[in-house]
Specification:
By secondary structure, the chain is of the alpha/beta class. 28% of the residues lie in helices and 24% in strands. The radius of gyration is 17 Å and the shape is globular.
C-alpha cells in the first residue's frame, strides 16, 4: 500500500558561518512517520527553487514546523525592530503561498508553533514578538537555568506547563473528547489578532491563543502553539492530533 507523503517546509540555517542549508528537526519527521503513517518530504524554504503548484500536486499534506526565526513584521503590517529578530524571509514566502494553496485545493495542513503563526498571517492576522510582555501574560518561553542557558533536561524543557481551554463543540474538543488540556510551552512570539478566517479553538489561562482552525477549509487545517511533535508516541493529546492528520492525508492519498 502506498504511504501518504507530507511536505515539511525547511528552515534556513548557515553552517560554520559560510554554508547555507535547509534544516528540519527529526522529531517532526519521526512523528509523521511513526504516528501519522506518512513519509516526510522536505520543501526548501527557497522561493527561487520551490514551485508551490508542483509541490501541492506531489504531497498529500503539509506540516508547518516551529523555528527559531520569526515571521517578518512586514507580512502583517508591523515595523521591524530587533525584538522581532531573527527572520527567515524565504520560509515566510514559501509557507504563506503553500498555506493559501493547501486551503484553496483541500490539501490537509497542520501548523505547529511558528507554523500556526504563519497560518494566522496568511489570512490577515497579526503577531506580537514577545507575548510575555503583554499585560497579564505569562512567560511562554522554554525554561532556562539561572545563568540564562537552555535547561539541559528535555523532560523539563518539554514538560506540560499550562492549561488550554478549548472551544466547546469545536474541532479540537470533538477530536480530544474534552474541553481542557495541558500542554508544553516554548515560544516568544504569538498571535495578537486572529485573521479573517482564523477560528480561535484554544486559549491558555492567560488569554494567549493556543489552537486555531481555518474556517471553510476543505480538509484538515489546524494549528497549535505548543510543540505537539515532541511526544505524540506517548502523549494522548498530541497522538490524537497526529492520528487525525494521518487520517486526513491517508484519505487524500487514497482518493
Amino acid at each position: 500500500m502506498t504511504r501518504p507523503v507530507v511536505g515539511i517546509i525547511g528552515n534556513t540555517r548557515v553552517i560554520g558561518s559560510r554554508f547555507a542549508a535547509q534544516h528540519v528537526g527529526e522529531k517532526y519527521m519521526n512523528a509523521l512517520a511513526e504516528v501519522a503513517g506518512a513519509i516526510p518530504l522536505i520543501i526548501p524554504a527557497m522561493p527561487n527553487v520551490t514551485d508551490v503548484g508542483t509541490i501541492i500536486g506531489i504531497v498529500d499534506g503539509v506540516m508547518l514546523t516551529g523555528s527559531r526565526a520569526n515571521v517578518h513584521p512586514s507580512r502583517y503590517g508591523a515595523e521591524p525592530t530587533p525584538a522581532y529578530e531573527p527572520y527567515d524571509e524565504g520560509r515566510d514566502a514559501v509557507a504563506i503561498a503553500v498555506i493559501e494553496a493547501c486551503v484553496g485545493e483541500g490539501v490537509p495542513v497542520f501548523g505547529i508553533c511558528r507554523g500556526m503563526q504563519e497560518m494566522n498571517v496568511a489570512f490577515g492576522g497579526t503577531l506580537h514578538p514577545e507575548i510575555r510582555d503583554l499585560p497579564g501574560r505569562m512567560n511562554h518561553r522554554m525554561p532556562r537555568l539561572e545563568n540564562g542557558e537552555m535547561h539541559p533536561d528535555p523532560l523539563v524543557v518539554f514538560a506540560d506547563r499550562h492549561q488550554v481551554n478549548l472551544l466547546a463543540g469545536g474541532a479540537f474538543a470533538r477530536l480530544l473528547g474534552t474541553e481542557t488540556i495541558r500542554v508544553n510551552s516554548l515560544h516568544g512570539q504569538g498571535i495578537l489578532d486572529a485573521g479573517a478566517r482564523i477560528v480561535t479553538e484554544g486559549v491558555a489561562e492567560d488569554g494567549t491563543i493556543e489552537a486555531i482552525r481555518i474556517d471553510g477549509a476543505g480538509a484538515f487545517a489546524l494549528g497549535v502553539q505548543w510543540h505537539a511533535e515532541h511526544d505524540p508516541q506517548s502523549n494522548p493529546v498530541n497522538r490524537t492530533l497526529f492520528e487525525a492528520f494521518g487520517a486526513a492525508i491517508a484519505n487524500r492519498c487514497g482518493g
